[in-house]
Each structure stands twice: as structure tokens, then as C-alpha cells.
Amino acid sequence: MKKIASILALCLLSVGVMAQTAKNKKQVAKPAGKTAAKKPAVKSDSVSLASLGPWEEGKCFPLNSDKEYHLYDFVINLDDIRVVKRYKPFFDKYHYTFSGYVWEALIRDMLADADKDLSANIALRSENNTVMVNVLKYQNINKFPEYMCGIFSNLNKFSSYLQKADRSKIPNY
Length: 173
Hints:
Layout: H1 2-24, E1 74-77, H2 81-93, H3 100-111, H4 116-120, E2 122-127, E3 130-135, H5 143-152, H6 155-164
Antiparallel strand pairs: 1-3, 2-3
């Protein structure tokens, strides 16, 4: 009974602190005359990610945190409209199915060019609309996004990987 009372007291204390913090937050006013933001230049063969909204802080597009299961180091959600708009045209161009299974095979192919320590310590899993990545060696936790971001952020490089991929290793579903 004493434990329940102390837990209840801690809960009430934390609610009081959160209410006090919310009361002390200040509103930030926008400067007058600067309401319209300058639009970024968009090339005809690319999609401006800024126009699609912010990406998760500290992550490289399209890599994201596993917020659903908390089991994976990185996930790529293929249902996200930003991912579809940026990458699906390349899949259509080279006649690939836009699915997690195809993405998994393509990422394996991309990792074949990486150093052996990195490629040997990555575990990939996929579903139809998601690719999940676990980095098996802690020392490579930053190497994986650094390597993959170099490919994902350069659409010409991404396109060349799709073009030269070994089709015998890529599923049709």
C-alpha cells in the first residue's frame, strides 16, 4: 500500500511540473513583413523534400527510427508519400515493383560495394511496405547511414544502382 501511495504521489508531482512548465512557455512571434518563405528551386527530375515537410531530426532521408516496434536501428517506410514521390519514378523507369522486398535486395546490392566490415554486419528484413535494418556491430552504427545517405541523397547515383542491379537477385513482388 505504501508503494502505491508513493507511486501516486510521484505521478501527481510530475503532472504538476508539466503543467507549470507549459504555463511558463513563451510564444514566439514572427517578424512583420516576412510571412512568405522563399521557395527552394526544384529541378524537373527531382522532388523538393522541403515542400514535403520536415524529416526526422538527425536521420537521413528515407532512413527513420523504428517508432512502432523499437526493435530495429533504421526503417524505411514505403507508405510515406515523401518516399514514394522521390523514389517510385526510378522503380517505374527500370520496371521494378515498389515493395520492401525489392528495396531489401537493392540495399544488399548497394552494400556489396561498401567495405566488408560494414556489409557483413548489417541485417535486413522486409515486408511489403517497410524495410527494417539492424546494425550488428556497434562500431558501424554511424557508418551505415553515412554510406547509404551518399546513395539516397544523390538521385543519379541511386538511379545507376537500380540500372546496374543484378535482376536475378531482385524479386518480382
